[in-house]
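>> Question from a student workshop board

For tomorrow's exercise we were told to take the sequence and the ligand below, predict the bound structure, and bring the output to class. My setup keeps failing. Could a helper post the expected result so I can at least see what it should look like? The ligand is iron/sulfur cluster.
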Amino acid sequence: MTTGIDERRTGIYVHIPFCQRKCLYCDFLSAPAGEDVKKAYMDALTREIRFCGEKGTEADTVFIGGGTPSTVDPSALSGVFDEIYRVFRVSPEAEITIEANPGTLSYDKLKMYRRMGINRLSLGLQSTDDNELKVLGRIHTFDDFLESFDLARKAGFDNINLDLMFALPGQTREGWGRTLRQAAALKPEHISAYSLIVEEGTPFAKMELDLPDEDTEYRMYDDTADILKEYGFHRYEISNYATLGRECRHNSSYWTGKDYIGFGISAASLRHGRRYSVTDDLQEYIRNADDRDLLLENVQTLTQKDKMEEFMFLGLRMTKGVEKEEFQRRFGHGMEEVYGSVLMKYTNLGLLAQEDGRVFLTDRGIHVSNRVMADFLLDEGDLYD
Ligand code: SF4
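>> Workshop helper replied:
Here is what the output should look like for this input. Compare the format with yours to find the bug.
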């Protein structure tokens, strides 16, 4: 039986855990740091990549995420890229993304990124309303963003994502609609739009926030697809919208179960049927970067059951859903055989639809996607080898 996954190819994720200042809602592994720490970390990253044992593996996507990767010295980043190009065979058509925040970019920096081969920029805008940006604790204004966006276009970036966030404190449907229209009118190629989640341990969790009610949030989500459609975007994943052909290839590979290797603290990998992550201890990381065996934690060899579950609940995040034939090819069992009763239950409820051999969430199903996906977890007793 073939797995259907080409393990000679991989995506690469590189985590840069530094930010200029911590946003009030953020629970990512990121923090401000001095130049010495950043330098030691970037040096450790190059060593981790050099000794990762993947010499000659083909890479078709690279994603530099964080944190705010644009807060590190571009020459240090260039060193990391040199190492990536030395170890991996980065395909000439590779999608190479860097995340950046408005207010941390200059024309020269963006030009240097282009010279490193970076061809996609992901800008954290979140809102076009300066009051909302202030409430979120963002470091930039909408004008700062406009300047960065313009510089990026001038530096040659023709593939730009904007990150937006809705259900913000004090935000109305009209306000969210304004943000969407102002952002879309700039004609980026891609927009990610997530609702604010108040995470434990963040300053927001300790504050009295005037958040939109559930019904308003539900409508804001529907408004997102409707408004962005007017500007030529289609939803291809629960929270992601793109113009034709500009879907993010790197993130799509997560949802379709392709291999990826994560470098840097806390970065996750899926490689040769195993999931694992790098330590989240910065000092330990810097000390042991030459020896991946000492860095890797939470190593889990995926069973057939794990792979089937992931195929379903990651694949269903995408609007095109999952293909029955592909399931059969990968697992040697029919999707109906394994998930027949769940498929029938949610199809009858109008939360799943089936068409041309594909299964996907309906618009109503997307709103309760967590509930639907949880039902695709198999019981331990269900053995499918
Ligand atoms: S810029 Fe992004 S990663 Fe950094 S603190 Fe803000 S939300 Fe978190």
